[in-house]
Amino acid sequence: MRENVEFKTEDGVTLRGWWYPGGAGGNGATVVMAHGFSATKEMYLDDFAAFFSEAGLNVLVYDHRNLGESDGQPRQEVDPWQQVRDYRDAITWVGDRDDVDAERIGIWGSSYSGGHVLMVAALDRRVKCVVSQVPLVSGGTSASRLVRSDALVAMRGMFDEDRRARLAGGAPGMLPVVAENEGDPAVLPTEDSTDFFLNLDPARKANWRNEVTLRSVEMFTEYEPGDYVARICPTPLLIAAARDDVLTAFDLTAAVYEKALHPKKLVVLPGGHFEAYTGEAFAISAPQQRDWFLTHLT
Fold first, then answer.
1. Is residue 164 part of a domain?
2. How many domains does one find in the chain?
3. For a disulfide at 37, which of 68, 112, 124, 180, Cβ 3.0-4.6 Å?
4. What is the dihedral sign for C-alpha 208, 283, 129, 134?
C-alpha cells in the first residue's frame, strides 16, 4: 500500500521516499525513518516500515539528501548535521498532512541515523517517541577504534589537502565506503560492513554507490550525538544494541544508555551490527520497537 512521495527541505532540496499509511486502527500516529551512513531506504527499511504500518502507524521512509533517490549536491556527501536538520523538516512535512496527528510523531534511526535521532529528540519537542537502533554515539571514539593511529594522522592530512583543493574550486575528494579488494582503503573497514554492502541483493542496492566525499569522513570523526542523550528526557527513548557490534560498539552504546534519563528501554540483540536488520534480531527487535511506538504515540 505504500506510495512514492517527495517533499522539500527548508533550503529547497527535494527528498524522496515512501509513505506507508496506517493500517486497520490507524489514528494519525506517525513514524519518520531514514537510514545510516551512505545507505539507502531499500536496505531493509521497507521491512520495518511495513511492520509498523500493519500495526496502524503511518510511516515516512526517505533517502537522505545527496543519496539514493533524493536530490542534493555534492552527490554522496554525508553531512550529519544537515541530515539532522532534514529529519526536522520531515517532521514538519508529515505534521502538515491531513492524515497525521502532529502531536503524535515518533522518529526511528539506525546506525548513523541512530545517532541523528538522539540529537533530534533532544532538540525538537515535537518528537513524542524515539527508537535508536545500533546507533553511532561517538564518531571520534569509533574512528579511533576502527582506524590505526598512524593512519588517522595521515587521514587528517588528507582532510586538510581536500579542504585546500575545494577552496581552490576543485571537486571534493572521494573514498569508498567499503573495500572491494582486500587491503584497499575504505571508510567502514570491518568485514561485516563489506559483506553487508557488497553482497546485498541487487534490488536492495540499486540506488547505492560505494563512495562518499572525503569531507563526509571528516565530519564523521567530529560527530558526537551521544553527548545529547541526557537531554532527550522526558521523550521516551528505546535503544536497540547488538551485543557483538564491532562497528558502533556495544560498550559505547551501553555507556550512553546509562546517561539517558527515564523513560527509556534497552533491547539487546544477538549478533553484529548489520544483523539487526534481518533474521532473529529483527524478530526480537521489531515487535518491541512497534510496541514502544504504540505505547507512546497512540
1. no
2. 1
3. 112
4. negative
